[in-house]
C-alpha cells in the first residue's frame, strides 16, 4: 500500500528519535535530548514544566500540520472529489483550529460554541458542517445566519425547527443516517449501530428525504459516523454500500474514527488505508468527505504532570499521584481508555505502579497498570497521546484550574490557552 510522502516522513522522523513503539505515541520529532530528557517540538519537557507549571497540555505544532497534510495527500492521491473535515470536538482550541483552516481543511462543529470557535479561527462559513443530535433553534439560527455550508440534519424535530428559522428554506443539508453497522470499538464510542441517539434509522429515511423537500431544504447528501478508534476498515466499505443504496447524492460524508496509537503496542492502520477503504466503493462523480478528529491531534499532544506522592502499600501496590487527573483527562474513567506514562528524565519500567490523580474519587486513575523508572516526588511525568478529547473534556472538579495549552515548534514554546486562575473559578458567580 502506497503511503503519502508526508506520512512516510512522519513515521521516519518518529522512529529515528524514540525507542520502540514510543515514537508512534509521542508527537513527531519527539526525542531524548543530550540531557537525557524528552524533548517535544524542540523544547525540553522539564524546562516546559518549570516555565509553565503542571499539569499542562503540550503540543507539537508541526505534528498537527503534518497529519493534516498526510490526510489530504492520502485522499488527493486517489481522487479529486474529496474534503477533509476536522472534527473540532477532539480539540476545540482556536489556535489548533486556525492551523487546520490554514491547511485548507473544512470543519465539523457540534454546538453553537464550536461554531463560534470555528468562525473565530477563520474557517470560511461555507466550509463548516453543523452537527448535533439535538440542535436548539437558536443554534440553528446562528448556523443559518452565519452562512454555514451544511447542516447535518439528525431528526424530524430538527427539520421542524429549521422551518421556523427565517432564511433556512434553501439551506444545504446532509441527512445523518444510522446505518446499523457495529464497529470493533468500545460501546460508548460506537455511533453507527441501530440502537443509537444519533441519526435517522434506515426505516425512516425515505420519509426524511421527502420531509426535507417539503421544508424546502436543499438535500445534498448523506452522513454517517460509525464510531471512533476504528481498526477494522471493512466497516467503511459496508457503510458506503448502505449509503449508496439509499439514493444518488453528490456528497457522502463517511465520518471520522481513524485510530491512533495510545500505547506502544498499538499499530493503527496508516491514513492511506482509511482513504482507500472509504473510496473503494464510492460511485464516480460523488464527493467523499471524511471527518477525522483524534487522528489529527491525538498524538500531537502530551500532558505533563508533576509526581506528588509515591505511596507503597506492602503486598498490595504502589500508588503514584500526580497533580491532575480526571479533570484534565476523564477518558480512562469514562470508558476505560488506555494510556501509558513515562518519567521525562528516566524512561524505564522498574516500578510497577498505579498512576492516579489528585481528585476525591477512587476511580480517578490515569493508568491502572503503569511502570515507571524509580518514581520520586518532583519528577516530571508525561502521558502521551492526550491531544484528543483531553482539553476538550476538561472540567473543574474539586475546583481545580484547567491546564494551559502550550504549542511547541522549533524549540520555541508559546501559550495558546492560559491556565485558569482562582479568579476564573468565581468569575461566573452571580452572588
Ligand atoms: C459526527 C462525528 N464526526 C467525527 C467525529 C470524530 O471522531 P474521531 O475523533 O474518532 O475521528 C465524531 C466523534 O465523536 C463525530 O461524532
What's this entry about, in short?
By secondary structure, the protein is α/β, with parallel strands linked by helices. It is built from 14 helices and 21 strands. The protein has two domains: 5-61 and 298-426, Lyase, Ornithine Decarboxylase, Chain A, domain 1 (Beta Barrel); 62-294, Alpha-Beta Barrel (TIM Barrel).
Structural descriptors:
single chain; 431 residues; alpha/beta; Lyase, Ornithine Decarboxylase, Chain A, domain 1; nine-stranded mixed β-sheet; eight-stranded parallel β-barrel; 14 helices; 24% strand; binds pyridoxal-5'-phosphate
* Number of strand elements: 21
Remind me, CATH topology of the largest domain? TIM Barrel
Structural class: alpha/beta
**How much is the radius of gyration in Å?**
22 Å
Instruction: Indicate the CATH class of the largest domain.
Output: Alpha Beta
Instruction: Report the helical percentage.
Output: 25-40%
Whole-number count of domains: 2
CATH architecture of the largest domain: Alpha-Beta Barrel
Strand content: 15-25%
